[in-house]
User: Fold Pyridoxal phosphate homeostasis protein from Winogradskyella maritima.
Amino acid sequence: MSIAKNIKRFQSELPENVTLVAVSKTKPIDDLMEAYDAGQRIFGENKIQEMTEKWNAMPKDIQWHMIGHVQRNKVKYMAEFVNLVHGVDSFKLLKEIDKQAKKHSRVIDCLLQIKIAEEESKFGLSKADASDILTSDSFQNLKHIRVTGLMGMATFTDDMAQVEREFKSLQTYFNTLKTNHPHLEILSMGMSGDYKLAIDCGSTMVRIGSTIFGARNYS
Ligand SMILES: *Cc1c(COP(=O)(O)O)cnc(C)c1O
Assistant:
């Protein structure tokens, strides 16, 4: 199937309350433009430099989402244009995004990345640390960021029962947090291999790469 057909299929298949982020990392601009011409306006990248190059070259009504791990010293390169940072995993990073957003008189939306994978290696905050951030005074003082939701990545495994456990634990935490923090509206979870399960577990934003653009070549 072509990229355009894949985009159209997702547009008609996804529930209305679920936002599609087209994950275009490593893909050439021609591929992104094919998705753009099919109506896609939200793209996700995991490297700030690559995202900035694409932002420079492409139409300005695109919303750029940073979905990868963010190094604090690179925030300045995306502060002018990034629309949503999915992978915020420390208060220090939030502070840096706030500082750089201020320089551009912007407010940048962020998601707190929560560690849900049972495996060890993944980035993310513990639920306790995320709750501490959201209730701290120093967080209330950041006027140039808005935390609009949570993001999580399940373990990379064929064991769908495990993936479901991990998604459900994030859903439960999200729903609990929302009672005290009603401005949280986005639950970013689900990729090509597990987005259907993620939606069943309450995801409102799926990040889909290879099912739209084909397998990535990292060489
Ligand atoms: C690459 C990536 C995706 C997309 O993965 P696919 O399996 O190609 O859909 C989603 N989320 C994050 C954080 C990624 O790095």
